[in-house]
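Sequence in, structure out.
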Amino acid sequence: MPDIKHFDPDAALDTVVRLFWRQGVAATGIQDIVNATGLNRSSLYATFGGKTELYRTALERYAESRTRPVLERLTEDRRGLPAVAEFFTGLINTRCSGEYAGWGCMVSNAHVGAENGDAQVRALLDRQHDRLRDALHGALLAAQERGQLAPGSDPAAAADVLALLAHGVNLRSRAGADARRLRSTVNSALDALGGPAM
């Protein structure tokens, strides 16, 4: 007879995403996951595998549900530097206010955690970084076409810098950085490109 699940795996995974995102992998034990989801260990293991597999699945869910839509909007927005400024405004607002203030970004958090030693996690982090850089590069190419970049600007190199800046915003916000200071830093980077203030 097939095993019938008496819980919603998607809802349980969403709970786990929030737990890993807020607390980090090292500070989250299986008992924390059991307590947060209300599931027993055997149900967790049967559905998701051990903690490592569960974390990989949660990180993938976060990347697909939270990061991908933001990067797709940036990729589709052809306004150039105003789109980049809007991206960073949204990033800072999300990281510094509201329900998820102080949580940082689950992807950026993984870059500095022990979990990045896992080859599958590292591959996902590299993929996400490439998506971020590519979306920024596309926006900067649009900016160049619109004459928004200062003479001599290199959109590819600038995209690398802005991608690292985005990770920095994520990590500094988790450490409690002030939103005004983060905006000031981003404004300096955009000003150097010839762009609008946030």
